[in-house]
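User: Could you go from structure to sequence for me? I need the amino acid at each position, not a summary. Structure tokens:
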């Protein structure tokens, strides 16, 4: 499919895509390191949000600023910044998430030459009225700061237009996730992942048009594509890593759902189109699927995980996160306990970007599929 091939080309070298986009449009590119970055505000400011998901090679300079037990996402991203790989950025926005990214923000501000720098200090607790009010205040400040940095007034009309585009992307992605769940043979897991990755770096209008073409084509297929592979749900983080989907499929599994950071987690929840747009954007970020660095109830992530596993009719869960990722590591024991209580088999795999062992991962996946 032509649109998917275009997504693959962009994901193969997203930095080159951003440079071409900037040269062609004259627009500004803003780097982000988390799905909690307020992308609607970036788009409303006529800029391109560019998600940084790790490094492009080994670590050469970052270890002079960070402990070696920081996760490979943080170390790799900083290394690329110090090596000038992000010279096309006009600014960077780092939301308040895990401890490592919070500290990275200070180091990035002082050492990376990536234009203006904004911290968006979102609340950690999201299930109270005061947290919602605080979230709205933070979003309003972020909007004001962006106006100053971009030298552009962001109007309510700009926000409504951006909301419409992002609502279109998220609702169409949900259609794609439904296809993956109901007809997992219709599109490979790596294809879905490529589309998700492209959604984080492409011009959002162009992405929505191409995404709609792909989903419309898949929905028009008359016969469901069956598969006898084991139905697998992926949970955790996972950023810039080898093709785990291809490995899982070669081991006898097929991914029918996920709650990954570089997966469906940031693509949940629509923004209300009625009322004040800034209030609506803040409300969506408070309601969306949370990550381990946020709190919306003692067992909220576990409850959501069990529900999604049941909804996707998954036979097993593979939990993936980067080595030294404390938030995911802290959540893992209770997530496994809840899965065990429901009789859902699970496999934990800790990965590191620079030293990922595909052979070992394949062996563990094959053993897990046999167990299922």
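Assistant: Here is the amino acid at each position, in order:
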């Amino acid at each position: 499919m032509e649109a998917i091939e275009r997504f693959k080309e962009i994901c193969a070298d997203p930095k080159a895509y951003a440079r071409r986009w900037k040269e062609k449009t004259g627009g500004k590119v803003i780097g982000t390191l988390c799905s909690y970055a307020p992308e609607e505000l970036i788009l409303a400011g006529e800029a391109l949000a560019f998600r940084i998901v790790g490094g492009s090679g080994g670590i050469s300079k970052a270890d002079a600023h960070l402990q070696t037990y920081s996760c490979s996402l943080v170390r790799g991203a900083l290394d690329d910044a110090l090596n000038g790989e992000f010279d096309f950025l006009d600014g960077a926005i780092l939301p308040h998430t895990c401890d490592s990214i919070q500290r990275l923000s200070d180091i990035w501000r002082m050492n990376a030459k990536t234009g203006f720098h904004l911290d968006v200090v979102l609340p950690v607790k999201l299930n109270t009225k005061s947290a919602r009010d605080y979230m709205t205040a933070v979003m309003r400040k972020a909007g004001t700061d962006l106006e100053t940095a971009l030298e552009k007034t962001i109007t309510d009309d700009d926000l409504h237009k951006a909301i419409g585009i992002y609502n279109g992307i998220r609702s169409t992605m949900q259609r794609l996730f439904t296809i993956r769940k109901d007809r997992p043979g219709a599109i490979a897991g790596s294809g879905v992942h490529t589309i998700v990755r492209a959604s984080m770096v492409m011009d959002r209008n162009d992405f929505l048009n191409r995404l709609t073409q792909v989903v419309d084509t898949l929905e028009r297929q008359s016969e469901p594509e069956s598969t006898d592979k084991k139905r697998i749900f992926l949970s955790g983080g996972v950023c810039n890593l080898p093709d785990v989907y291809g490995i899982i499929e070669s081991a006898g599994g097929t991914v029918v759902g996920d709650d990954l950071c570089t997966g469906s987690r940031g693509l949940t929840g629509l923004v209300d189109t009625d009322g004040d747009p800034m209030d609506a954007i803040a409300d969506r970020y408070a309601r969306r699927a949370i990550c381990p660095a946020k709190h919306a109830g003692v067992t909220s992530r576990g409850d959501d995980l069990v529900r999604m596993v049941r909804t996707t009719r998954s036979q097993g869960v593979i939990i993936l996160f980067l080595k030294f990722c404390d938030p995911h590591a802290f959540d893992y024991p209770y997530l496994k306990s809840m899965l065990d209580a429901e009789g859902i088999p699970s496999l934990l795999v800790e990965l590191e970007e620079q030293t990922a062992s595909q052979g070992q991962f394949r062996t563990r996946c094959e053993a897990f599929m046999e167990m299922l």
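One structural detail worth keeping in mind: The radius of gyration is 20 Å.
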